[in-house]
Every structure is written in structure tokens, then in C-alpha cells.
Amino acid sequence: MDVTTTPPVKRVVAGATAAPDGSSSDTSSGGAAARNGGHHHRRSSSLGGENHPFFEYFGWVYHLGVNTIGHEYCHLRFLFIKGKYMEMYKRDPHENPGIKPIRKGVIGHTLMIEEAGRQKVNHGDIYVIRFYNRLDETKKGQIACATAGEARKWMEAFDHAKQQAEYEISRGVSARNKLNMETEIDLEAHRPRVRRYASGLKRLIKIGQGPESLLRQSSDLGGSVGDGYFEGDVGDAVEAHQWKCVRTVNGVRIFEDVSDSKSGRGRGVLVKSVGVVDASSDTVFEVILNLDRHRRYEWDMLTGDLELVDSYDGHYDVVHGTYDPKYLTRWQSKRDFVFSRQWFCGQDGTYTILQIPAIHKKRPPRNGYRRTKISPSTWEVRSLNMPMGSSGAKCLVTQMLEIHSSGWCRWKKNSSSKFEKTIHYALLSQVSSLKEYIGANPALKVESSTMVVQSKHSNASSSSGDYEDIDVQDQFYDAIAAASSSSEDEDSDDDGELDKKDMKVKLKNVSWAITSLALKRTSGQDANKELDSSVAPITIDPSQFHGSMQQERDGIDSNCWSSPSGKGFMIRGKTYLKDNAKIIGGDPLLKLIAVDWLKADKAADRISLHPKCLVQSDAGKKLPFILVFNLQVPAKPNYNLVLYYACSRPVNKDSLLGKFVDGTDAYRDSRFKLIPSIVEGYWMVKRAVGTKACLLGKAVTCRYLRQDNFLEIDVDIGSSSVARSVIGLVLGYVTSLVVDLGILIEAKEEGELPEYVLGTVQLNCIRLDSAVALEVVQGSA
Fold first, then answer.
1. Tens digits of per-residue pLDDT, 731-745?
2. Do the Cβ atoms of 151 and 132 come closer than 8 Å?
3. Which of 27, 136, 239, 676 has the smallest count of CB within 10 Å of its CB?
4. Where is the domain boundary, 421, 449, 477?
5. Is the pTM above the cut of 0.90?
6. Do residues 318 and 175 both lie within one domain?
7. Pure H helices in 599-736
């Protein structure tokens, strides 16, 4: 099956917002488009609100599901997202005026979006996006795209639609009631009927024989990335690596880690090669992951002969490879190897691929080959921001590996060293080969980031107003998860007429002003203003609070915790919205008073309601406010890392923290941020965890419990396949890791800057067997 689809095309109907000087400024990506020579029309949308841009996305995707007789299917469908509404068609409605959607519904604020990784369908690889309702995970569905880049852009599209629903909730009671009425529609009412079984089966057979292939269009990798979308090369935590360039080969720099800290490396040397490739990160990621022998022969001299042995959750597979060492040495015996690949895309769009030697029962050592263990290595592919008006896309490609060869030092001093005949050098040269391969194939460099796309604006007389009065008959999840094998499922709907207009659209990761109703400040955010200064502070006595994990005492303890300063974290500075500048964090606002390391048969929510929890103790009830951060770690058994933060004064309700504590779950999801950092440990785990800040509510399912003097945040790491994969690697090395975590509330408006560190913790070499059993008590809010 040909698995080529097209990414979403975005059109923007933007409102005007008042600039500080009283003039009108464009808040949408259309402003950038106009500067590039496109035509931008600015108007207010009744759906988006006077000061909020209104987005529309449309394009081809694959709809995955199970039909009425239990068979899995993969149908090509045209999705149209307008505001918070979604419609699904069998044909492009722009080319077929008057066609009715087969499904339509609301993308609610409780929608959770997860990248489910790669799957093989009819001999082709597709990238799956999974949806579910965080309040009812039985409501779920899947769509898929041909490339990882397309999947990422569709995830942005759905996220914008979700934010539109969140904004409408913030407008008031009437909007909330309308959304509640829409989301309470009976999801089972429009499932395919049993009486349609015969005609539906015939139609499925007919579709499978050809009509879908006629609808397929070539992929152009979809919308571009706006300025400032990526936050730069550095992470949000201070790293210990100190890289020194030791050689430049074919335009690619080769570095050695010369830092004093050698933890996690044994006697080896950590090296990396870095090069700029003239293509998007999506394209480079696809090339690296592709196992097609004919393509790999063009750039990969070492691991060109690869075959897939096993594939797991869409983000993890095992491959077997062979190579002939005559290209490297005089030895003639052929070699083979087995290694696992684990990959994921961060919230900043950076791709990471981990490659680790492996053993698999399907590929035991074979006669005539010498089994070789390939050194652990990582790929990191990050898009580079391009100056306004420049053409093409560029990305920074980094390959890092650990070298145990004694010839490394001699090679640095002597270019004729035998190191150039080793596997390590062949691996380091892959970046250079990749750069030349893509440069010699112009088709790989064609990106729609500079492409003029045919885009359309909604007619002002029939745009979002039509959607406001729609009697929405299907919920979003019904549209994604239900089979659409019968024409009787095509619900009627009146589409507004569309005027075709040519324009250049520059896709930008717009930060929605859901929280623009918050109090505007004229000065920078002061952490001390987060607490009520009119109330005298109380003295927090740490001896009154005890968790199951001990606090570090003499600096050499293990299996313990401490609370470092915020100097190890980079946070948004006062001018971040203008120049993306970050500053070193200060002391945390909240005091870490205890840590619990617990285990249970299933993930434990609402720890604060447990009668033995310190929140329920007499001392805990006297504290003005406690933030309970409950990290649920999926394993056998399940673990809970529970952090208790307290403050000496009540929280100022008009502050950023106050709005977070008493805000909606949607607001909290869009603001709560975690910065991880592996201070000491195996370098591969460091690369897997990274140092970039993560909005937890957008990566995993977060549940909140607000009662009395506390707020509990339950973070379900197991709700994301990517997070499960990473935490699985971390648990394998956890007894030798020193981990720093910083939590904060993301500042999105100028009056909220600079950010401040809410709380920190350092976990020193945790032992899994030290977890204390917890009897899960399900309290009621």
C-alpha cells in the first residue's frame, strides 16, 4: 500500500489586538506571511473572539479503526478543523462542493493527544496519533500520517483546536454550558448499525480494491515553522559536558568531552560529530530511520545492510545488520551485529534516536559471521531558525558515541593514525555522509516552509457563525474511532461558502491567549509577590515532617533527597518574548519538606487523602499551602515519587501561582512545567532524558485535586508511550543516577516575566527495593 498523505494546510482568520501604543497589531502568523509577500486579511471571528486568531486546518490523513465485523482498516480521509470543530470527509470538499461530512464533532478541552510512533501497514510505515478523553479513556481513536513531520503538524492543529475550546470556557458561564451540552452527546448513538452489515461489507471490499489509492496525493511535508518556535541549542538545565573541537572532516566538526566529570563512561571517551544539513529535521529523521538497503547504500558505509527483527510500541525496534570489514581493515571475515533503536520527538521538535547493542532470540550468532557489538550511540536532529526571507530549511545533526579505543588520542595528534580504519570513525563519519547524500538529492530538500500553498479564508458572512448554531450530533472521539463504512452515516451539515485566495502562510506555534483575562502587570514577575505579604510568615519546622525517603545529611548519602538552589536551571527572562533570552534561576519559592517513595499494585492517585499522609497530619493542616507533586512511575510494581512543597504564607490569589492553584485543569495543563537534568549517570540516559523544559499537561495525563490547604498534581507517566519508554531506560540505571528536577509555572505574558523556580529536588541513587508499600485509598474530592 502506498502510504503517502499530505500534511495539514493551515489558514488563519485573525483578530486585531491593541499594541502598547494604542495601535493595532497582528497577532497571527499571517503577519509573517504578509511580510513574505503573501496576502493577509485580518478580521474578527465570532468564534475566536475579538482578540483571538481563528485557525483552520485541512488535509489528508489515514483513519485507523475496527469495522463492524472486527477487522482493522486504514482508510484515507480528508480532515477539516475549524476552530474547535472537526469534520471528516471521504473526498476533498474544496474540489467537491456540496459534499457532506461523514463525521463531525467537537474537539473538547479534555482531549489528550499522544504520538503513538511508527506502525507498519501493508508494507508501508505510517506515524500514528492517538486521541483519548482524559476523563474517560474509553473514548479514543487513531489517525495516521505518512511522515513524522506531518504527524507533528497535525498534533499542533488539534492542540490549537483544543485551546480554542479552553478559551471559550474562560469566556464565561454561557460558553461553558454550551460546551458541556456538546460534550454530553451520546457517543454510542451513531455507531454503525447491525442492519447495515451487508451493504457495509460490500463497500469495504470495494474501497480496498482501489478508490483510496486514486485519492492519494504526494506529500509536501506541510506548513513551515515560525521564528522563535525552537528555543535554541542550549537546554533548560546546566549540563556538565565541555566539548572541544578536535578535528574537522568534510565540513563536519568532531568534538571530545574534556570535562572533569567522567561519571557514566568508565574508561571510555565521549565524542560527537556535528554538522548542518540543508533539509528539515523531519526529512533527516526519516532518512536515518529508513532501513531501505538501496537508500542506505548511498550514505551509510557501515550499517547499510539492516533488517527489522522486531518492533514494539511504535518508538522502539530491534534491527540486525551485517558489514564487510574489508572497507575498514585487512580482515576478511564478515561481521554482524544486533542493536535496538529507541526514538522520540521532544516538545521543541527535536528528534532523538538512541542506539544500544542488543541480544535477540530471533538473531542468534550465525555461521560465517563474527558477532560484533556496535558502540552505543545517539542521534539528535534539531531544526535551525532561519532568517526572515531565507529559502530552504536547515537542521543541526549530532551523533554522539562512547569510544573505548586507545587509538583515539593518537588520532587527534596524527592524521595518519589507524583510527580512521575503525568502526568508531565510520560511525562518526555518518554525519558527513548524510550531509552529502541529502545535498546530492534535491528532492529531499524541497520543503513547504518556503512553498506557496493554496490557502482559503472563510467568507465573513458565513464563517464561524454557522458553526456556533450547529446542532453537533457527533463527538470528536466518535468521529475518529467509529467505522464509516456506510453512506447512511453521512450526517448532513451546512458548509459556509469559501472564497479562494492565494497567500503564503507561515506556520507559527502561536501561544494562545487563553489566560489573557488574567491581571496585567506593568512590572516584572516578583516571586515574593506570589505570597500574601499582609500575613505574617510561619516557621516551618522540617523535623515535624517525615517521608519514606530520607533527606541527605552529610553529602555522601545515597537513596536520599536534597533541595538544591535553582541555579542549575535556565528560566525565561524579562525580555524572553522579544529575544528568547533565558536567565539562571534563583532560590525556589516553595520549600521541599518531605519525599515519599512508594509502591503499589496500581497507580495511586489522591495521595493527599491517605490518612497517613503528612498533609493530613496536625502539622500539615497548619501550613498555609502545600503543593503535592505525585509522579506515577509505571513498572512492576508501580512506583510513586511524591514531593511535598510548602510555603510560609498564604498564596496571593491574584498572583500567577494563585491563578494556577485555583484555576481550571486546562489552565494548569498549559502552564505546569518540569525541567529534568541528570547530574551524574550514564551518558546515554542523559541524552534520553535531556534538559529541555516539558509542559507536563501536554505530554502526559495530569489529574488535579484541590482541597483545603493543598493542591495535588498526579502525573501519569504511563499515559504516554514515549514517556514509558524513557522511564524504562532510566529505571535500569536509577541506582547510579543523581537527578535534578525543577518545577515552575510557565510565564506566557510580559507581565508574568521573568519566571521563577517554584520548587526543586535532587534524587541521589534511588533504590527500587526501598519503596514503601502503600494501601491505595480512593478518597472523594
1. 999 999 999 999 999
2. no
3. 136
4. 449
5. no
6. no
7. 618-622, 656-661, 665-669, 683-689, 696-699, 721-733
